[in-house]
Amino acid sequence: MLSHTAAIMRATLDQPDRPQNVTTVRGLTQAATSLNREFRAVLVNEEAAVIGRAVAQIVRGDGWHEAKASAVLVAALMSWLGPDAVRPIGFYANGTGPVEVIAKVGHVYITGHGIESEDDITVNCCERHRARFSQSRIEDLDLIQPNARFTMGSPLAQRATDRLAAILSEEIDPEIARVVLGA
User: Fold this and answer.
1) 98 lies in some domain
2) What percentage of the chain carries pLDDT values higher than 70?
3) Does the predicted model carry a pTM greater than 0.90?
């Protein structure tokens, strides 16, 4: 009869050298993680940060994650990657209207916080907005429809969208981004 320690050691030695088929949680690929770093660097560069603050001050915020700024960001992403590659999604917190606009590109989501996986987006949005998971949802959103939080018709919003799209194009090749994001 083997001692307890010997039995554990034997079980450990009997393990195969190569991992078996293990299912992992879908996350970002290495390429998407690298793109995420570049994308976040663009958002914090001086000019983009000024654009984000200017738009966000409309709703007394201080960054891209505020409501109008997130709509501007999604519109800029549509300009940068093409309208066929980006689907605007609204995050509806606690059963209310949309509080954040998110860009769905391929199998990932892009927010003012970076590129997020499909598995994490709802949880992250709930944390950002202090919303209950069971009472929140993500669904398609039309940026053209009138909405007090996401009015996109203002000259400030259009200038911000155009300039941010230009900054993104200068810093990150849109064709490479489309391939990495699965668009």
Assistant:
1) yes
2) 73
3) no
